[in-house]
Amino acid sequence: MSDSTRTEQSSARDWLRRHSELGICVLLLAMGVLVLTDTFSMSVEFTQRGPVGPRTVPLVVGCALILVAVLLARDVLRGGRGEAEGGEDIDLSAPSDWRTVLLLSAAFLANAALIDVIGFPLSSAIMFWGAAFALGSRNYTRDPLIAVALSTITYVGFDTLLGVPLPGGPLMGVL
Amino acid sequence: MDSLNLLLDGFGAAITPANLLFAAIGVVLGTAIGVLPGIGPAMAVALLLPVTYGLDPTGSFIMFAGIYYGGMFGGAITSILLNTPGESAAVVTAIEGHPMAKKGRGAQALAASAIGNFIGALAGTILLVLLAPTIANLAVDIGAQDYFAVMLLAFIAVTSVLGSSRLRGFASLLIGLTLGLIGLDQLTGQQRLTFGSLELADGVDVVIVAVALFAVGESLWVAAHLRRTKDKPIPVGTPWLGKSDLRRSWRPWLRGPVIGFPFGSIPAGGAEIPTFLSYAAEKRLAKHDEFGKGAIEGVAGPEATASASASGTLTTMLTLGLPTTATAAVMLAAFQQFGIQPGPLLFERESALVWTLIASLFIGTVLLLVLNLPLAPIWAKLLRIPRPYLYAGILFFASVGAYAVGGDITDLLLLFVIGLIGFGMRRYGLPILPAVIGVILGPSAELQMRRALQISDGDLIGLVNSPFAITVYAVVALILLWPLIRKLVGNRTKEHAA
Fold it and tell me: From the list A51, A85, A98, which residue is nearest B221 (CB)?
């Protein structure tokens, strides 16, 4: 008895894995609902002339999103598959490496969290090193050196040469 | 002859040390980017947008055009030496180019490609000079309804002509249009999709969307499937061509632009379709039965075609303000950054900028040949860059760019969220180009449509009351109904045969 439930469970999981593209349909559907709710909550402008106002295009886009979500779901359930994008550095025969993706995302988000606190040069260097580490680089002397050099040169280039201000942070305040 | 004078003035302005430097930087950077995996010219221009905030528009566009042309040749280098095209424009080049390299004729393949690119770009730019002012003059009188029709055509064409699934193309377009809706309505100032947030009231910056979809999405996607085993590029000497190779190559070189330019100028995805057509044409015309085993004609023709298609793309972008490739779309966003609206009026209002840009296209073409013919083996060394550094660097410059736009952390978070969407799109085969076109053209399309309706006082006839608009809608209908038509015609011929 428990055996059959287990196989049922695993087959359900299998089914979901094979039809994971339905996630895109859910995303499109959610976007469509979001656009439509936003459109209907907009107060109707009395200055609007003719049939087309600020609500028309969102209305069309929202409905189209829901329509495409439904059509795509039908296509996926009938066995349609979106072709994953290939590339020079991409090996589609291997399963998705979620650990690398998560580490890379963490490096990126750490930069967003730190940049206003410790300044651009330091926080960007940490991101570069973290991203290189996530992607498998394990050279503990060369990696941080490249990271610091890159972020310092970029900081000086943008802030001084191009006149695009970046936060120096406490470190640059001391220097 | 008026445009000849303007072009000469343009040369005068382009041969300043600063502009020559920008052209050289663009060409070198473009070639490097073409060689490097993961980065294409569209991503490169998007990443460079923040750098150009402090520069003048002329210099920036000279550099961008150099990147576009340079990327065409750079992509061919990896196609030939590694059998992995750096750009979609170079996919066809690998078919004959890589077998040539394997037979020890890599130097000849590179030379056929470099000279082919030179001739293609030269012929394409001459066509641009001859045709662009005329097109701009014809288009000066087109009204809001015509613009709307043309943009609608661009939407339908990029979703229908490219990619294997129309449905997924439309899904991508709609994602772009939705992102374009965020912010204040341009005519009434009402908030749309801002959810009360002040940061979103200005709308999502096009730079952020482009950088997120191209750079962040690509880095995350590569991270999920990073190839651990490396292909070894075939070592190669300095490119050169013997007499017999020249005899086989010159006709394909000249035929290439004839195919490439027109296809580049229509919204059919730039270089992919014409390079394939050029390959098919050369295969049919070839006297040598070497195709599939390294025929030089199969490199020379498509390469000249690819470069000429870039000129065709620029022609449409400058005269109509209509981007037909991802790179042109990002360049259009760059024009908007500088407060310049490409379109028929550009040739009147920004005459000096346009002609300096065109003159620098000629200069860039020559620079490309002079630099790349001897440097090809060195470019190939770029392939050895460790992948962790490459993608960490892409992510690094993506966040620099997004942060430099407004110095705001919200932009970094937005970059990440849209980057995740870009990741999902790559995973499930949603093409990126329609989303980028949607976010860049969507707001202007809405504006033109509402202007047209204001002029007609709300009467829907206002959208179709010009012969130009009607013609464009006929083409749109044809593209939309094409699968149906083909099915009907196919059935009839089958019946006929039976």
Answer: A85
Average pLDDT score, chain B: 86
Nearest Cβ partner of B174 from A53, A68, A96? Answer: A68
Q: Tell me the CA distances in angstroms from B202 to A84, B183, B196, one per residue in order.
A: 34, 5, 12
Residue B477 lies in a domain: no
Three-point CA angle B68, B73, B79, nearest 5°: 125
Give me the phi and psi of B184, to 5 degrees please: -80, 140
Q: Give per-residue pLDDT as tens, B265-296.
A: 887 667 888 898 899 899 888 877 788 888 99
pLDDT tens-digit map of A23-78: 999 999 999 999 999 988 877 655 555 567 788 899 999 999 999 999 999 999 98
pLDDT at A142: 92
- Rounded CA-CA distance B67/B49 in Å is 13
Alpha-carbon distance of B357 to A174, in angstroms, equals 44
The structure tokens 């995740």 sit at B420
The pLDDT value recorded for residue B231 is: 67
Contacts of B57 (CB under 8 A, 6+ apart): B335, B338, B340, B353
Number of domains in chain B: 1
Q: Give a yes or no: residue B34 inside a domain.
A: yes
Local structure of residue A139 (DSSP, 8 states): -
Closest CA to B168 of B426, B425, B430: B430
**Over residues B210-215, mean pLDDT:** 88
CB of B164 closer than 8 Å to CB of B170: no
Chain B residues in contact with A117 by the CB 8 A cut-off are none
Cβ contact, residue pair B227, A150, below 8 Å: no
The answer to whether the CB atoms of A28 and B165 lie below 8 A apart is no
Lowest mean pLDDT among B54-63, B326-335, B455-464, B483-492: B483-492
pLDDT of residue A1: 45
Q: Is A160 on the interface with B (CB under 8 A)?
A: no
Residues in A 39-68 with any Cβ partner in B closer than 8 A: 39, 42-43, 45, 47-54, 57-58, 61, 64-65, 68
User: Is the CB of A135 less than 8 angstroms away from the CB of B391?
Assistant: yes
pLDDT band at A110 (very low <50, low <70, confident <90, very high): very high
The CB-based long-range contact list for B478-482 (8 Å cut-off, 24+ gap) reads: B479/B156, B479/B157, B479/B160, B479/B161, B480/B156, B480/B160, B482/B160
Buried b or exposed e, range A75-107, using 16+ CB within 10 angstroms: bbeeeeebebbebbbbeeeeeebeebbebbbeb
Of A21, A35, A134, the CB nearest to B223: A134
Q: Which amino acid is at A170?
A: P
Give a yes or no: residue B32 inside a domain. yes
- Do the interacting molecules here have an ipTM over 0.95? no
Which residue range(s) make up the domain with B90? 2-465
**Which residues, numbered 12 to 31 in chain A, qualify as contacts with chain B under a Cβ-Cβ cut-off of 8 Å?**
21, 23-24, 27-28, 31
Spatial separation of the C-alpha atoms in residues B3 and A78, rounded to whole Å: 57
State residue B308 phi and psi, 5-degree precision. -65, -35
Verify whether the Cβ–Cβ distance B226 to A85 is below 8 Å: no
